[in-house]
């Protein structure tokens, strides 16, 4: 019995090292959002500025809205409910991430005015469509909770953009010496 207890740490050492390596590497994998495709995640990663990332998330949200419109225009397909719920959740995730990046950009005093303006112009369109969907009653009953979350996320993003535009001062104007 003593031999087994003394050998146990030696037997477990490789497993402990492997789990430590996995824990060290896993933050890189955690950065990819589950609602983004690999190419979308690459675009986000490759974007050089926060404003570019915000605009990308807004465009991905717009893509999810278009896909939702398609799904509701073509009823009766297999696993439709799962796809619709996934699209609504993905939309909400994109809008939340864009909103979070707006807040971060304001905190870091980055020039994100163009991205904020894009949020202000696109989010109300998204909200209108989501509210129209929500008003369909029984047709959207299976998606109601996720739809309500998406509406809340969009309302929050609109509020955050309105606050951010006030706080995000324009860069100083450099004047030529005369």
Present the secondary structure layout.
Blueprint: H1 2-30, H2 38-46, H3 50-73, H4 80-107, H5 113-134, H6 144-167
Helix pairs in contact: 2-3, 3-4, 3-5, 4-6, 5-6
The largest pleated sheet is described as:
none
Output the structural class: mainly alpha
Mean pLDDT: 82
Distance between the termini: 91 Å
**Rough outline:** elongated
- Unreliable sequence segments: 10-30
The number of helices is: 6
**Whole-number tally of structural domains:** 1
User: What proportion strand?
Assistant: under 5%
Can you give a write-up of this model?
The chain starts with a helix and ends in an 11-residue tail after the last helix. The longest helix has 29 residues. It is built from six helices and no strands. The chain has about 180 residues and is mainly α. The chain has one domain.
Main attributes of the structure:
76% helix, 178 residues, mainly alpha, elongated
In short:
The protein has 178 residues and is mainly alpha-helical.
